[in-house]
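Pilot study result, target chain (132 residues):
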Amino acid sequence: MTGETYDIFQAIADPTRRKMIRLLAGQELPVTVISKHFPISRTAVSKHLRILSESKLVNVKKVGRERRYQLQPEALSEVKEWISYFEPFWDNKISKLQHYVEKEESSEIDPPGSEGDPGEEKGGFPDLTPPD
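Predicted structure:
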């Protein structure tokens, strides 16, 4: 063991660990069951689980001879708080996008023939019937 500790952001940085977090949401599982969901060795799964445990994202409980892992979702509150700081930026961008789309929709020109232009039918196709 290197003595290195991991914070929540390091723990969620890895896609495999993010998948493990989802897998453990709402259920307690032993490493043998968790390992079946990943194309990596059980040793690698255990290392990921250790990092999740050190970052307080999962709780480890010994039941008989096996260790069971369970998500501790309250640990994600630090991530939520950090992300919430940036929500006004996203909201502003979304608001600008909505305004742009609404402006584009209101300024669209009706297709030719949609208002009964002479010599054309609806849909912009010319009237090819011979005159009387």
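One observation from the pilot: The first strand starts at residue 28 and ends at 30. A full batch analysis is planned for the follow-on phase.
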